[in-house]
User: What shape does this take?
Amino acid sequence: MSYRNTPVLVTGGLGFIGSNLALRLVEQGAQVTVVDPLVPGCGGNLHNIATVREQVEVIKRDISAAGHFASAIRRARVIFNLAGEVSHIHSMEFPERDLLINTVAQLRFLQVCVRHNPGVRVVYAGTRQVYGKPEYLPMDENHPVRPVDFNGVHKYAANMYHLMLSRSGQLDAVVLRLTNVYGPRMSLAIPCQGFLSTFLRCILTGQGLEVFGDGKQLRDPVFVDDAVEAFLLAGAAPALQERTLNVGGPEALSLLEIAQTCARAAGGLSVETRPFPEERAAIDIGSYATDCSLIRKTLGWKPQARFADGIESTLAFYRARLRHYLDPENPQADCSLPEHKGVQRRLKYAAV
Amino acid sequence: MSYRNTPVLVTGGLGFIGSNLALRLVEQGAQVTVVDPLVPGCGGNLHNIATVREQVEVIKRDISAAGHFASAIRRARVIFNLAGEVSHIHSMEFPERDLLINTVAQLRFLQVCVRHNPGVRVVYAGTRQVYGKPEYLPMDENHPVRPVDFNGVHKYAANMYHLMLSRSGQLDAVVLRLTNVYGPRMSLAIPCQGFLSTFLRCILTGQGLEVFGDGKQLRDPVFVDDAVEAFLLAGAAPALQERTLNVGGPEALSLLEIAQTCARAAGGLSVETRPFPEERAAIDIGSYATDCSLIRKTLGWKPQARFADGIESTLAFYRARLRHYLDPENPQADCSLPEHKGVQRRLKYAAV
Assistant: This one.
């Protein structure tokens, strides 16, 4: 399947991975509609799609209001479902906010999809966070699901919605379980969006890097172009035997190696280790590395970009347009804690 | 540990299993507080605890309003957490109602437990429904979790809350995964509460029994006294290595055998098979039988009552007080669909 002239919907399409995906879909000639409410703190940024703004229909709504854009859902040949909140730390502080964004909204959205476009292919952006602390590495899709934070629980509930509705033929969904993704269009000004966002913010503002713990914990970052390729393949694949696929990077590196690579790319900055803050230690999963053999077999996908190369092109991207990602005057980049509390308040609903 | 003079809290304590548990706890000398909002359609019935009404504190609130009974949570030595909605069929028709009752309310409740009684033992009433269609029988706790309906997804999200908060030391929870439980105090007038409720309603009103499909599907019903014993043991056990324990019956019987046993106990009624209605076929899991070896090893529990005996004492119980369970004038027993829709409306909350 080619995406030429294919109507597609991208939820969370102004966010980090969603916007990169939307750009690639436009390049491939798809008719792209993105849905994104630009909720402060969730990483949506209109600048992310500035270069293709005229070719993309933008619906500024939360996916839980899907009834308001049912026609876009109805005509979509593929739905890329990336809307959500990714912060593990925030989920522990505001669990109900995380539940609303990652579970309640998905339930409402998927019910509209089932009603207006039964059987539609949906590619859902899941997370390796659902696995919790690895029992073995590299981690495959059969690893037990034992999330260590509310974000993992809520993302897994949405994951189950997709698969349950697919087992009964109401959807044709595939869940990609993403490890740490990095690259252009990541939000840099929002706290707690993962260590790679923090590292990038530090090196772009000339600060040294801090690594929590002894720095020996492994991660396998995946460059966003590779992640986008996995979404494109998953959206276009014919009948799927496997509906849960890990998406990981090409190398398992220690946090210290990752920090040192970032520091070198930035022309030499300090890297220091320091003890885990308590709230992070509680939800740290230790080392992680992905077994990508199932997605390789199923979709022919494997990660291409080595971390040192990916981080170079990422820095080049940001250096040319830093103000769109770090300017405190830019409201998209503003996500202080009081703002979060405001969101939390607005999201409150009546007691059962 | 003995329950004598022990303060305990039972959520869903006016419902089927919860009220049987509350009665046994009173017998054992515990200081029993039950929480139950008597939501129409969820099976709560004040008559269930009529014989011990004076010895039990009843809080008529939803668990999501736990802030209003924080003092009861604070003093509880054990919390038996049985509040919830059990209907698979209703969950498919009103998924958001099910999400609110089984997940949102649990999140709110557990946050209050963590705040006011950190580390408290919580025994959660989980369900074998989370497993979905069995890949092998009898089913142990390592079977993959692949729910076939919204109820299974939402109960599993609450299941994950309990375990996640226990891994981080904020609670000391154990999840009992119950198969079909039957016995006195089951609601008989509420539709879609499981085939055993339906069978009992039919034989108590002299109607013949209908079995969906060919009747060969296996089930292993567990008598409520046995289920209650599992809760008591789980609440009293010292440090737990295993936090997820299946609770099943002593015999795997075909639905036809179960129906015939019921019909015989009622003095001889007809049993017929008929094709599955579409909405039930979609979420039917086929045969099920529980592997109870883990709970036997962990708590020394095993089911005692054979089905033929359990159903005899169940019928004796209902015959003596049928009007409290079937009288259409009794509002506790009234749960028509419009009523459900009313609940659904009241539960609505502001869009995200």
